[in-house]
């Protein structure tokens, strides 16, 4: 067995810029292996692959107990989850196995907030519909709604949520934050706090920026949607399973929901048979890409590498 450490990277944003980071590994005498992956590897692929490596920088892959058990039975000594979301990683299994692991919080709150607010504006002013009409030879002029004076139910008040609130307040919107760990933030004194789903009927927009947990899966469901203001607009830049997509489709069909912008979906990529594809310009889709700016990827990747090198005690 070689004495050189071997590190696997399975995080697509980092992989797309991997040549920028190779010198950091070369300087430490570490063999870097970029995975051949577009979105995620399967659990079985990871079980076969990860045990060959000493370190692993994880994307949105199913980093399950089975994967970590196989990996620690092999060479794996440490792992870092690239980014903020950790719902795909079994941290309890890592603790049980004695495997050092951490994520990289606070790296791209501004970038995701930028995308969240861009969707708020797009739904308010129907900019995507106008763009598509012009490209197809049309020249439509839909009447949108102004942002000033409108109310946003902001679900999640962590780094992303606070950065989103800052931008919404700058647009003269009212913000009600929903977060069980809510704490006031400097410069955001105008943000009000409520317990989900209290006061949801006041919202013109619902914007999801929170982490996914066992407790909040499908937190935006048929029971809640029926309580919302008729014609509410919904933006999700967090995690797809926070929304019951079948209930959302029904609410779009009835008009209870005016439109939705989904940067993330319950199943990714969005299945071809998804009923959400049937609503034209009333349902906008992203590709789980809101953190992917050149600046944020560089910043987060350097942090992940630094943390992994620390775990591996690389000097």
Describe this structure in words.
The chain has two domains: 6-105 and 294-311, Rossmann fold (3-Layer(aba) Sandwich), CATH 3.40.50; 109-285, Rossmann fold (3-Layer(aba) Sandwich). It is built from eleven helices and twelve strands. It has helices spanning 12-15, 18-27, 43-49, 65-73, 91-97, 109-125, 127-135, 159-170, 222-225, 245-254, 294-311, and strands at residues 6-9, 31-34, 55-58, 78-81, 101-103, 151-155, 174-178, 192-194, 205-208, 232-236, 257-262, 283-285. A seven-stranded parallel β-sheet has the order 8-7-6-9-10-11-12. A five-stranded parallel β-sheet has the order 2-1-3-4-5, with helices on both faces. Helix 10 links the parallel strand 10 (232-236) and strand 11 (257-262). Helix 3 packs parallel to helix 4 (65-73), helix 4 packs parallel to helix 5 and helix 6 crosses helix 8. The longest helix is centred in the last third of the chain and has 18 residues, at 294-311.
Question: Keyphrases for this structure?
Answer:
alpha/beta, Rossmann fold, 2 domains, 7-stranded parallel sheet, 11 helices, 34% helix
Q: How confident is the prediction overall: mean pLDDT?
A: 97
> What form results from the Cα inertia axes?
elongated
- The CATH superfamily of the largest domain bears the name NAD(P)-binding Rossmann-like Domain
Major sheet strand order = 8-7-6-9-10-11-12
Largest sheet: 7 strands, parallel
Percent of residues in helical segments? Answer: 25-40%
Order of helices and strands: EHHEHEHEHEHHEHEEEHEHEEH
Number of strands: 12
**Rg measurement, Å:** 21 Å
> In whole angstroms, how far apart are the ends?
21 Å
Poorly predicted segments: none
CATH architecture of the largest domain: 3-Layer(aba) Sandwich
Percent strand equals 15-25%
* Total number of helices: 11
* CATH class category name of the largest domain: Alpha Beta
Structural class, by secondary structure, is: alpha/beta
